[in-house]
Amino acid sequence: MKNYIQSANDYYSHFVQPKDFVEFASGYLLSEGICRIAEEEQCFWLIQIICFQPKISGDQFFESWIFKRAEGLEYILQAKDYDSNIIFEESFQSPDFFFSEIIIWKVGNYLLLPSEYDEFVKMISDKTDRSYCLNNDNIKNN
Fold this sequence. Notes:
The protein is α+β, with helices and mostly antiparallel strands. The protein is built from 5 helices and 7 strands; from the N terminus they run αββααβββββαα.
């Protein structure tokens, strides 16, 4: 059962194996978990903000985005890079988003839930050189 003080990541934690990605605007690919949350929580606008934020530097392969309730309908959206430097922060009003927070990882042009990352790495490492993948321990600290 949904609980408004719960993280969306906890509620949707059963998404662990991103098999199919849905093409979004400008070449971004959304995992199954991200698509489900965007549809059920009516937050495609949040996905658009994450996708269309200009990069501060060209070498940002990994970004961790957290959308967290501050008070009432006010939320703070914050992004950190791989080294945990804050690269974006802004407040938004969101009457439609039910949960207290959500964390979305942007890995290259993929958006996925942290719970989907391990299987995502296996999936892309089968197709590419494993050195392309980031250190999982450092990422989970973001």
